[in-house]
Amino acid sequence: MKLLNKVKLALLLGILLKSVLAVDVLSTSQLDKQSQITQLQQQALTYFSNGGDLKQFESKVFLGVTIKGNLDVVEASFLQAHNLAPERLDLSYSLAATQVLKGDLNKARQTYLAIESQAPNYPLTWVYEAAYANAAGESAIFTNYLNKLKQVKSPEIIRYREALAIADDASNLQINVMQTGEVDGRSDLVILVLGYALHNDGSMDDKLIKRLEIAQSVALHYPNAKIIVSGGVAQSGVTESFLMRNWLIDKGIKPENVVVEDKSIDTVSNALNSMTLIKNLAAKQVILVTSASHIRRATAVVEQAAANLNYDVNVNNVVAWDWGNTPNVVPATSLEKALIVRDALRTAGLWQYPGMLR
Fold this sequence. Notes:
This protein is α/β, with parallel strands linked by helices and about 350 residues long. It has two domains: about 1-170 and about 335-358, Tetratricopeptide repeat domain (Serine Threonine Protein Phosphatase 5, Tetratricopeptide repeat), CATH 1.25.40.10; about 190-330, Rossmann fold (3-Layer(aba) Sandwich), CATH 3.40.50. The chain has helices at about 1-50, 55-60, 70-85, 90-100, 105-120, 125-135, 140-150, 155-170, 205-220, 240-250, 265-280, 295-310, 335-350, and strands at about 190-195, 225-230, 235, 240, 260, 285-290, 315-320. Helix 3 runs antiparallel to helix 4 and helix 8 packs antiparallel against helix 12. The longest helix is centred in the N-terminal third of the chain and has 48 residues, at about 1-50. The termini are far apart. The model is unreliable at about 50-60 and about 65-70 (pLDDT under 50).
């Protein structure tokens, strides 16, 4: 009997040990997979932020809007991470966002459809489906998803619906190429000038100088207006906004009228940071100054930034023409509309890379 009990005990200990070892192997496997995913995410962000073809791609749409990166590597990294953990929606969303940036809207929409089949009652997917269907001019699909969103009463989804409407209006924006009318002494108006990437030696690009020339012209009509110069990316120890302020003062603008916003790194942060300043100044109207090819996207994010703060302000524009010898406004393409709504949603709080990058 004692021998039988010892055998039973040995068998039981063997089973327990096997279970412990199996759990340990499983945990190690899970940790290895998570480590691989984290490395792939970091690789994607590194290639998104440094060098490569992204600026070249966006220059086709926005004629030189400054974004850096190598999107092929970014997409491949997120795709590999997604394949390791297909149940993680954040990786699927990051993959789709990269496909939008690459200009491959069809592939992006297929990714969103796959997400929807995986999580059919997840409203964030409907937001993206509505956004890119509208950009593609597919009104029936857009209306279908918009009707679904109208049934969702959460504050976030209501804000995202508002962003869709703001982006749609901005895609059909009236673009102004000059300031007209008599000199206006009003002081409740702000001129918001968006920066542009400096050269490696810290000098200003001609595109930025042209924006400043337009801002100076507008300021002559509104001599009491505050001028916000927005841009915080530094080169050779100076930021865009620092040089922009100095340029305007050298041209005769009163120093006390120039407000520096030097924390922004892109158009979305330009809008978010500047709108806080605009609200603090109690401005009733904003004249947005940027390049013509950039104005629709810029207007969308500035208006959405105001909506985030529930701040009622009228946003108008005067642009620096960068469409060459083309005498007329260039209509927004489906791709530009997609990027406009993407940034409006980013401004509203939908991160392009969930948990990693707004």
